[in-house]
User: Fold these one by one.
Assistant:
Number 1:
Amino acid sequence: MKKIALIGSGGSGKSTFSKQLGAKFHIKVWHLDQLLWKSNWTPTSREEQIQIQKELVKEEEWIIDGNYNSTLDIRLEAADTILFFDLPRTVCVYRVLKRMIKYRNQTRPDMAEGCREKLDFHFLKWIWNFPKSKRPNLLRKLERLSKEKKVIIFKSSKDVKRFLQSC
């Protein structure tokens, strides 16, 4: 495991886990939310997103957490290991609400500077709809990629904890 892509719904635990995994293996962690947003929630252009990620995946080792579906294939094709956080949406929504309270009017450590935490109905709706709108396509991609890459699907927080302890 030298090139690890973490994907999953918002609130599934990708950023927290990626920091723990990076510390354990001494691999640089890249949070896409930190790289692909500018201050005040201004998104980078798609061209910038592509360029940034193409540069990241050239590195010898990396952990990249984030979805960004329009550029997902860049990371999945370059990764040797893909970790899909397929946790229940109720868990993800709960975690996002908890995170919003914890970081209210602050910038999270895994976000771009100047992107203060906020309650966003659109984001909560995206999380709630993730199992139907995003998950089926992700599972198809992962099935295809599992023939050549290590693909691990976490269904619960216990799965995540067991994996980290077993590394």
Number 2:
Amino acid sequence: MVRKIEMKPVHRRDMIKIVGAGAITGVVASLLPNLAQADAASAAAAVKKAAGGKSPASGKITLDLPQIAENGNTVPIGFEVESPMSDSNYVKTVHVFADKNPSPDVAVFHFTPGCGRAKCSTRMRMAKTQNVIAVAEMNDGSVYMAKSEVKVTIGGCGG
């Protein structure tokens, strides 16, 4: 059996409404990625939560970051925390944050005295120039923090 589909003409005003709705949708969709970025306040809240409400001290953490990253897709990051890593004195957790990524939380690393060293390196994606923050929690409850800015350029042309 053949089914016949009857097509109706689209009036000029209806076509203008359809095209206008598509244009508005395109503009809104292009703005959404910019809205989905963390800010300094959300990064500070994430740091405060990771620190358990304590005020982090400076020192003990050494960040290994490039000052300028020509490709934001794979930015090498690394850290080392000074600790004897003994049963009585060791690093429990290290949190890594980026204050302008869609979510400030980047990674969490857990350590035990059996690890020997509290050191790690990895790569992360960065959309733009921003601060990378590391927060280390020790087994005695003390908290340390280090922060460093990484400038992300696009193709080495600035950004």
Number 3:
Amino acid sequence: MFFLKAVQTNMKQFLQYRNSFLISIAIHPFILLLNIFLYRSIFAHNGAEQIKGYTLTEMIWYTAGITFVWIFIWNFAERRISDYVVTGDLSIHLLKPINIFWYELSAAVALRMTGILLEFVPDIIVYSVIYPPSFLTALSLAKFVIVCVLSFCLFFLINYLIGMTAFALKSNSGLNEFVYISMNLLGGGLLPLDFYPAWLQRICDFLPFKYIFYYPIQIFLNKESVNSWNEWGSIVLTQLAWIAGGYLLCHVLWKLAIRKFCAVGG
């Protein structure tokens, strides 16, 4: 009950700043057009119908898929928790009837619900008019949305863990940048992992990042390697395993970190 009320309250707050979301309706299609021109030039220069197993349409929509995934997962829990620790405001949140983990999750859920409504829905309509996604089906889109919800959970847990480092580091901005860069590079948030050398792809297999970007986008593109129910189910189960492990780690580290927290003043 407290969680749903917190989601509702946070969503009302974020909707007050809806103009910042609506700006993306103009910016995102411009980025799509740039990618269309870029990849058309690359494919024309190489004189190939496919590069590393991707057609021109798939490469254009892969970059669009990166934007879509960010719309589903983006939150700033790590900064909020760091601010609570540094300013001492954490003591106030500890007195609230809702656990801080669930309070931050409610804020992240409200932020993403607003983003999906004001960014993802308009984007996919406008994108489809500019460059129709011939590969997309209602089923692949539904599968994409489901794995993106799990990607959001995984990304939130990573951010929450980064936020808790503020108990020891105070300022975790450097660590935050390192994790974000690593996640983009090793998760397929810049280029498909298929473009990487085999040894680097094997490293990526042991990290959770590819389950945030690469696999959801593969499902969105309806690639043959992931369009069966068995492959999709395997991806979902692996995401759930990473989420369970991340939640357990958050719980254990919070118990250890909160013992060292001390706020002075009011």
